[in-house]
Amino acid sequence: MTTLQTFALYALTAVAEIFGCYLPYLWLKKSVSAWWLFPAAACLALFAWLLTLHPHPAGRVYAAYGGVYVVVSLIWLWRVDGIVPDRWDLAGCALVLVGAGLIYFAPRAS
Questions:
Q1: How many domains does the chain have?
Q2: Which residue among 8, 80, 100, 105 has the highest number of C-beta atoms inside a 10 angstrom radius?
Q3: 14 belongs to a structural domain
Q4: Domain that holds residue 80
Q5: Residue 75 counted as domain residue
Q6: C-alpha span between 56 and 51 (Å, rounded)
Q7: Is residue 48 part of a domain?
Q8: DSSP 35
Q9: Does residue 72 fall inside a structural domain?
Q10: Whole-angstrom Cα distance, residue 36 to residue 25?
Q11: Rg of the chain in Å (alpha carbons)
């Protein structure tokens, strides 16, 4: 799997997780229909399945995924919630991406 494919898969996984959590939030906080819980459950199932597509050990995949999740969450904050991330948000994104990259792409003995 190439670096670009890995990052794209992580980003898609994050979107599935965020949708799966955002829809119940809308139901609980914004009084949308409970019917939205069905696509929320489907999104969370998709999220779990997408994590299994990575060829590395699960714990390492989850740890590296966390960095991409933070970035996608802040994009969500900006595009969906309408709040522009500040310089501290961006600095935090840079830090977690570096950490995620170290975890996922470090050379290891086979």
A1: 1
A2: 100
A3: yes
A4: 3-105
A5: yes
A6: 10
A7: yes
A8: G
A9: yes
A10: 10
A11: 15
